[in-house]
Design goal:
The complex is a heterotrimer of chains A (166), B (783) and C (295).
Chain A lengths: L8 E7 L2 E7 L5 H8 L18 E4 L2 E4 L12 E3 L12 H8 L9 H14 L5 H7 L11 H19 L1
Parallel strand pairs in A: 1-5
Antiparallel strand pairs in A: 1-2, 3-4, 3-5
Helix pairs in contact in A: 2-5
Chain B lengths: L19 H4 L16 E7 L5 E7 L1 H5 L3 E6 H6 L4 E3 L5 E3 L5 E2 L5 E7 L2 H10 L1 E6 L6 H4 L17 E8 L1 H9 L3 E12 L8 E7 L4 E6 L4 H12 L6 E4 L15 H13 L3 E4 L2 H7 L2 E13 L5 E13 L26 E10 L5 E3 L7 H19 L3 H8 L8 E2 L5 E2 L4 H12 L1 H13 L3 E10 L11 E2 L2 E2 L2 E7 L5 E5 L8 H13 L6 E5 L17 H27 L6 E3 L4 E3 L2 E6 L1 H10 L10 E6 L8 E10 L6 E11 L6 H20 L31 E4 L17 H18 L13 H10 L5
Parallel strand pairs in B: 1-14, 12-13, 15-18, 16-17, 25-26, 32-33
Antiparallel strand pairs in B: 1-7, 2-6, 2-8, 3-7, 4-5, 9-17, 10-15, 11-12, 11-14, 15-16, 19-20, 21-31, 22-23, 24-25, 24-30, 27-28, 28-29, 31-32
Helix pairs in contact in B: 10-18, 14-15, 15-16, 17-18
Chain C lengths: L6 E3 L4 H11 L3 E4 L5 H6 L7 E4 L9 E3 L3 E5 L4 H6 L6 H7 L5 H6 L2 H7 L5 H8 L3 E5 L4 E5 H4 E3 L2 E2 L6 E8 L6 E9 L9 E9 L5 E9 L6 E2 L1 H7 L6 H14 L10 H30 L1
Parallel strand pairs in C: 1-3, 2-3
Antiparallel strand pairs in C: 4-5, 5-10, 6-7, 6-10, 8-9, 11-12, 12-13, 13-14
Helix pairs in contact in C: 4-7, 9-10, 10-11
Classes of the chains: A alpha+beta (166), B alpha+beta (783), C alpha+beta (295).
Chain lengths: 166, 783, 295
């Protein structure tokens, strides 16, 4: 830990299973570290008041708004972003379900929405509609009216549950 | 159930979207994802005052911040005569303020630096010396002699911008005077904002060596932006290349050209380096174009049995500091004259007066075809008041006044020719779906138990697809749209259009149209939009115009391809062209159905084996000038209950039956309706950009400008009727804005219906719980 | 959006935190969940020279349940409380689910929320209802302060710049009684601060008599409020409609709201009454349910 520095702190994270390290200003927000420093632009920034959730990533498996975490606070931790969802050329069940059910329109909120949903389907794949709506209530979408997002998460959850049974 | 893009005969099918594979992988390429070598970042200095004289600007400290490359002020721009720019409404707007600022958060200086952080640091250090002036917030006060004149640049010393009217005033007054039943209602649509989740931004990349400016911009109308930029900057238009990458929602917000864009361009020209500017959410809501802000008064005359006789509307339109409305030139109040709605008004008159105030400039058509939302809200709300006055069921009142199916094309009192509709059957479907009679019975029972339950209707007609060249232009450019199709030798297709989708699914739906016309599948057709160097000229995507205009162009360009293809097919079949016919998927020899040629075979022949004398290749371009607009419509029913303790309104059900003519992709249409209803819900219940008496913006971010989450958003029940447009090449109308245009009135009508036994005829939106509670208290209903 | 530059420290022990706070005084700001502080820094409404990140201090993450009560480390995140299943402290999970939005709850902390002292914050009301205390410590001493004495004014507490809020201590409900808790929040949407927030807790004996009661109010005063008169009215009573009504009325008198865009003072005061009434009625209904089940 580079204590007491403001111009250049070293941040080392494991992101989507890969270790990445860079020196940034201490004030760098995690969202910009992921986007600008690591070049993973799937994570988006949509507001300045921690309201919209477009920047949601998983920090040690837990959804956080990466615009409201300092990059240096993620030092030594695990990150997951939308880019890590697809494995071995196969879409994650959530990605597939969002596609099948028209769960996105402009796509800007989608990566954050997917990451919030990922944490939910891992914990509670067969969550009911109310639980899903509550879980995604920190992620704003202006296009879909959420109906098809909820539908997609339910479909993905069922797929995940079946896979877990196998 | 959604089908794959490889489905044959794709028109009308729920084809899975072709744009999704990149977006669900986080591989979309939005403006802020683009990074160019040597790129600089820009930040804007904004006014803390709504109205103030600028005594001086000191940039010394800002220039000392490490990494800062330049600071630009209005005085700098004035030397280039770029401190003002034209708005799409024919007014002008300050780029960077000189003399005085006219709204809070107005652009005062631009700082450019090596990093975002340095630009923000330096912006903070620009010292501006302001002399605050009294702010004009109320548009009615703005029109009084006591109000200070805001726009010193204008010859006319008044805050009045323009007066616009339509219809027969005398006849309307006479009809009103002679009507046994009359109602009058004051109805306000407050200032709201489209607020797409992706804010606006641009990268200006001027290459001194080539003299070419590449301008990446979050744009719903890239060609229009290119032309405006050429006019503003003096750069030759062919040396401006506009690229609108993936756009994260627009809803009208990304139609205008904003001061930040011009600053970025100027700084790139000056420094010869790419300059990126991405606004913050606060900048987005507080400064880029708002919508609505209409103060309307409606009067309706009717007979005692509920037949409407006349409609009179007067409106004050608050445009803020500059009239930056994005309306067609001849329509300063947009298509507000659709205000007679779905009803047979023999006479009508509407007038609107535009007013300047110390607020952010606008307004745009937020998910709306130029003030159609205001018009629909007004007439659907006023019909509710009339129903109450007549003590008549609002569904019955509507039935008695609907334009009948055999009356189309219908000439409205305010000058439009409605193309098609079957309003009663659409309403009947909605009423059946919601089980209206049973609902009314339940409402009666629940009322007896002391519950406040309301049922609200909205049977709107809107007007989309601007527009025919005889009537529609923006800054003189006619509002056609275009499509260019190239069929490659292997039968695969690229098509480019003048529109620019922001989530509407054009890459899929336009591929469906073209594929359907050419006997291909949607997967065979690549749709490309947003690059002005490759796409034919078009006016862009807003006002639900893409399908009515570019969609028509796509179908007709494909038919042009088919004409030539028929010649080639005949050549391949060794027959005369007139002996070959198109069976919907292939060319077939008349009377010899086994002899057939596919489009792929024709395509190959177009490059390898054309008939003698024929030009090789298989391409077509079509500029479609629609003969008329299209008139989508719908019937919505909202059911609400009110918590007598808190004033909270719960939407128990919402049924939406839309008629947008021929449906290209039902999945996409349903998605548009879900989204539009949700925005309408937000407008009805939680959204308003309010100002205090000093002109301070009270809702400049998502903490105060409220966007519904999944938890508040009701469950939508949707269905449709299909009455094709007789004049559109495939019978389609627009749909994106219908749910946003039609739903706010349904919500308010439901709340009013719940409270009407106590004499309530109007509730102002947004219907916050406190507002409802104040009404409950007044009528002794609060617990 | 970038905050102003700052020196960043991430100590791993409380002693190191105290040393840093001692060294930097008013220039330093402690960051825990950061869900209030970072947005303010991004908007440059706050610009600390030194940021002391306490997320790596393991001692602040402890949770201990004992006969006398519950001790929660200041770093306890809202989401942990939302999921917590402590039958003796039902108000904690009932409140946590209303804070901000689910993602913010994963990061935001109880200690951070209390130290920030936003009068609209939900924890202030809930923990006042529970008669909680907070532990404040620096290198020299550690003191326990009743939450009611901790809050001074809007964004102001008795916390010294050199002190760290290390833990929240909640007394156990009295023996021979069953605790109930309700949090009622009027918000315009998820993520909104409370227009009005009301925390109601009561421990009822087998006869349905109130042994202890707590009522805390959010967003109706310059700081979170404790409706002490209303609490006192309830003790020793059964929750009859008349008692409930009287307590609700008293609680609404304790409120000191201002009129703003979220409603008039009268509206907010009335909402306190309505929510206290509803909260107590629900508690009574829950008690009846439990009693019937055990009978």
């Amino acid at each position: 830990m580079d204590n007491g520095k403001r111009q250049s702190v070293t941040v080392r994270v494991q992101i989507n299973g890969e270790t990445r390290e860079a020196a940034v200003e201490s004030r760098t927000l995690l969202a910009y570290f992921i986007r600008d420093t690591l070049g993973l632009t799937g994570t988006h920034v949509g507001c300045d008041t921690t309201s919209c959730g477009a920047c949601t990533v998983l920090l040690d498996g837990v959804p956080v708004k990466s615009c409201t975490v300092l990059a240096v606070q993620a030092h030594g931790h695990q990150l997951e972003t939308v880019e890590g969802l697809e494995q071995d050329g196969k879409l994650h069940p959530l990605q597939q379900a969002f596609w099948d059910n028209h769960g996105l329109q402009c796509g800007f909120c989608t990566p954050g929405m997917l990451m919030t949903a990922l944490a939910l389907v891992r914990q509670e794949p067969l969550a009911d509609e109310e639980t899903i709506r509550r879980a995604i209530s920190g992620n704003l979408c202006r296009c879909t009216g959420y109906m098809n997002i909820v539908k997609a998460i339910r479909q993905a959850g069922r797929t995940v549950a079946q896979t877990q049974e196998v | 159930m959604a089908v794959e893009a490889t489905e044959a005969q794709p028109l009308g099918k729920a084809v899975k979207r072709k744009e999704d594979p990149r977006l669900i992988r986080g591989q979309g390429r939005y403006l802020d994802d683009i990074v160019l070598p040597n790129m600089l970042y820009m930040a804007l200095v904004r006014s803390p005052y709504a109205h103030a004289r600028i005594r001086g600007i000191d940039v010394e400290e800002a220039l000392k911040v490490p990494g800062v490359q330049a600071v630009l002020t209005g005085e700098d721009l004035a030397q280039m005569n770029l401190h003002w720019m034209p708005t799409l409404a024919g007014d002008k707007q300050m780029v960077l303020a000189t003399g005085k600022v006219l709204f809070q958060y107005q652009e005062v200086a631009a700082v450019v630096a090596d990093s975002r952080a340095a630009a923000e640091d330096a912006a903070q250090k620009v010292q501006v010396d302001y002399e605050p002036l009294p702010a004009v917030v109320d548009p009615f006060f703005a029109l009084t002699p006591d109000a200070p004149i805001l726009r010193e640049d204008r010859e006319e010393k008044s805050n009045h911008i323009w007066h616009w009217e339509v219809g027969d005033k005398e006849a309307t007054d006479a009809a009103l005077a002679g009507s046994p039943v009359r109602i009058k209602e004051v109805i306000r649509m407050p200032r709201v904002h489209p607020a797409p989740i992706e804010p606006c931004g641009c990268i200006a990349d001027y290459q001194k060596a080539t003299g070419k400016l590449t301008w990446y911009v979050t744009s719903q109308a890239p060609h229009a932006h290119r032309t405006v930029l050429a006019m503003v900057s003096g750069l030759p238009e062919h040396m401006i290349h506009v690229i609108s990458p993936d756009v994260g929602g627009g809803f009208g917000n990304k139609v205008p050209v904003y001061p930040g864009y011009v600053c970025a361009v100027v700084l790139s020209l000056k420094l010869g380096r790419p300059v990126k500017w991405v606004e913050t959410r606060t900048e987005n809501i507080a400064t880029t174009n708002f919508a609505r802000d209409y103060h309307m008064t409606a009067e309706i005359g009717a007979t005692e049995d509920g037949r409407v006789t006349a409609l009179k509307v007067s409106t004050i339109a608050d445009h803020g500091a500059f009239d930056a409305a994005a309306d067609p030139t001849r329509f300063p109040a947009g298509l507000f004259s659709i205000v007679t709605g779905s009803y047979r008004f023999p006479v009508a008159f509407a007038e609107v007066d535009g007013v300047y105030t110390n607020k952010a400039p606008g307004g745009v058509a937020y998910r709306c075809s130029f003030r159609v939302t205001e018009a629909s809200f007004l007439i659907e709300r006023a019909m509710q008041t009339l129903a109450l006055k007549l003590n008549m069921d609002p569904a019955e009142l509507r039935r008695r006044n609907f334009i009948q199916p055999d009356e189309f094309p219908y000439q409205s009192a305010l000058g439009w020719t409605y193309d098609s509709g079957n309003y009663e059957s659409t309403l009947n479907k909605a009423l059946a779906l919601v089980d209206y009679d049973r609902l009314r019975q339940e409402q009666k029972e629940r009322r007896e138990r002391g519950e406040l339950v309301g049922i609200g209707l909205s049977t709107f007609t809107e007007i989309v697809g601007a527009g025919p060249s005889h009537t529609f232009d923006i800054l003189g450019i006619k509002m056609f749209d275009s499509c260019e199709i190239r069929v490659h030798p292997t039968g695969k297709v690229i098509a480019r259009l003048g529109t620019r989708h922001q989530g509407q699914g054009h890459e899929t739906t336009f591929a469906q149209i073209i594929a359907h016309e050419l006997g291909l599948t949607a997967s065979d057709v690549l749709i490309e939009e947003g690059d002005t160097d490759t796409a034919p000229y078009g006016l862009g995507t807003y006002a639900s115009r893409s399908t009515p205009t570019a969609g028509g162009a796509a179908a007709l360009a494909a038919r042009r391809i088919r004409q030539k293809a028929q010649q080639i097919a005949a050549h391949l079949l060794e027959m005369a062209p007139e002996d070959v016919e198109w069976d919907g998927s292939q060319f077939v020899a008349k009377g010899l159905p086994s002899r057939r040629v596919s489009m792929a075979e024709v395509a190959l022949a177009a490059y390898t084996n054309v008939p003698p004398g024929m030009e090789p290749g298989l391409e077509a371009t079509y500029y479609y000038d629609p003969p008329n607009l299209t008139f989508p419509n719908g019937a919505y029913v909202a059911v609400v209950s009110i918590d007598r303790g808190t004033g909270q309104v719960r939407v128990e059900r919402f049924v939406a039956v839309d008629d947008c003519g021929t449906v290209i992709n039902p999945m996409v249409v349903e998605g548009q309706v879900h989204g539009g209803l949700t925005e309408g819900f937000g407008i009805a219940f939680m959204q308003e950009i309010a100002f205090d008496e000093d002109g301070n913006c009270l809702a400049p971010n998502f903490m105060e400008y409220l966007v519904p989450t999944a938890l508040e958003t009701p469950r939508w029940e949707t269905d449709r009727t299909e009455t094709p447009s007789p004049h559109h090449p495939i019978g389609a109308k627009g749909v994106g804005e219908s749910p946003n245009v039609g739903s706010p009135a349904a919500f308010v009508n439901a709340v009013v219906d719940a409270l009407s036994p106590y004499g309530v005829t109007n509730v102002d939106i947004p219907m916050f719980p406190w507002k409802i509670w104040e009404i409950l208290k007044t009528h002794g209903l609060a617990l | 959006m970038f905050p102003n530059p700052f020196d960043y420290y991430a100590p791993e022990t409380c002693d190191d935190v105290y040393a840093l706070l001692h060294e930097h005084g008013y220039d330093a700001k402690v960051i825990a969940g950061g869900q209030s502080l970072l947005p303010m820094m991004k908007l440059r409404l706050a610009a600390p020279e030194v940021l002391v990140d306490v997320n790596n201090v393991a001692d602040l993450r402890t949770m201990a349940v004992s006969d006398t009560g519950l001790r929660l480390g200041a770093l306890t995140r809202h989401a942990e409380m939302e999921r917590a299943q402590w039958p003796d402290y039902p108000l904690l999970s009932a409140t946590a689910g209303h804070i901000a939005d689910p993602i913010v709850r994963n990061r935001g902390t109880m200690g951070g929320s209390l130290a920030h002292a936003d009068p609209a914050a939900d924890w202030g009301a809930a923990l006042l209802a529970l008669d909680a205390r907070v532990t404040l410590a620096d290198a020299a001493r550690s003191r326990e302060v009743r939450l009611d004495d901790f809050f001074v004014d809007t964004f102001t507490t008795v916390l010294e710049p050199t002190e760290l809020l290390t833990a929240i201590v909640i007394p156990a409900p009295p023996r021979e009684s069953r605790p109930f808790g309700q949090y009622l929040k009027l918000e315009r949407k998820v993520g909104d601060f409370a227009v009005v927030g009301v925390a109601v807790t009561a421990s009822l004996d087998d006869a349905g008599r109130v042994v202890t009661a707590g009522i805390g109010l959010a967003s109706v005063g310059p700081r979170p409020l404790k409706a002490q008169a209303a609490e006192a009215l309830l003790v020793g009573q059964t929750l009859s409609p008349a008692v409930i009504r009287e307590a609700a009325e008293a609680a609404s008198q304790a409120a000191d709201p201002v009129s703003d865009r979220r409603g008039s003072a009268e509206y907010k005061r009335t909402m306190v009454r309505v929510f206290v009434e509803r909260g107590l009625a629900k508690i009574q209904a829950d008690w009846e349910l439990v009693n019937r089940a055990s009978a």
